What does this fold into?
Amino acid sequence: MGKIFVDACFKKETPYTPVWMMRQAGRYLPEYMEVRKKAGSFLNLCHNPELAAEVTLQPVDIVGVDAAILFSDILVVPNEMGMRLDFVKGEGPVFENPVRSKEELDKLLCGSDAADKLTYVYDTIKIIKERLSEDKALIGFCGAPWTVATYMIEGQGSKTYAISKKMMYQNPELLHDILKKVKEVTKLYLENQIKSGVDVVQIFDSWASAIEPDKYDEFSWQYMVEIAEYLKEKYPHIAVILFPKGVAGFLDKVYGNFDVFGVDWSTPIELAKEKLGDRYVLQGNMEPTRLYSKEATTEAVEKIQSIMQGKNHIFNLGHGILPDVPVDNAKHFINECKRVSKK
It folds into this structure.
């Protein structure tokens, strides 16, 4: 089950640096685009276990990463809670009826009523595990309740999160009710991913930086920790990764029972090492656009390795890979990570 990767998450290899890419890694692969065309739409691709398994495995087979990360989308959760989801060209994901009242929230499914509807995700995992080499791990994932809630409230992506943050200060009780409902579905969703065969789970809080540091624990981190602790109590052998993007000002307040902390590219790796390196394995940190230059990639990989010498670190990007990155440059990143990990 990808023993080396999983061991690294639990600090059993010191130091060792397995390598993998963010969940949308396939977007830069021509092979991914061919499968996407075959599916007809992004949501159709998420709903088709055979095709979703195929694109999950592509970065492993083509680029040579050490673990596969499940292909899906964080918004399948509110979709199966009862919100109609469309991916609109030029706009991205759009919910037809945003949730902005208790009455609208009460119409949505909760707990297993929603989590059990995500069968296409669980079927995808089973197909991947049948085909994935035993020396590679499979990473499941979900969105953090706060990140998912922003889409549910705003109705689509946002640059200001004005409606969500207005609710935070004017009606915090309603926002907490939304977050709690998403949390309960997410706990069971990840548990079902584990039962289906994933070796590791990761919780992404892509919009963490939208919350001021003094409010971050209340409206995001505590919910991520509750999900992690639920899983660790029941499945202590499963590594849990928490990845909040843009929270360098919150590192002093990080707590919880989980294994790996994802360090985004805007957070100095030296600071993350100082604050968290003795408690958690650190992951990531390279600025994704460095992949446009092999020289810039090598420079970053060597710097991160020199700083993290003697500590556990999982090489990864500091957020998602961009779709126009040359495949050869992605392979160069993987090879450089493996090269410096042998020093």
Observations:
- The mean pLDDT is 93.
- The longest strand covers residues 137-143.
- The two ends are 25 Å apart (CA to CA).
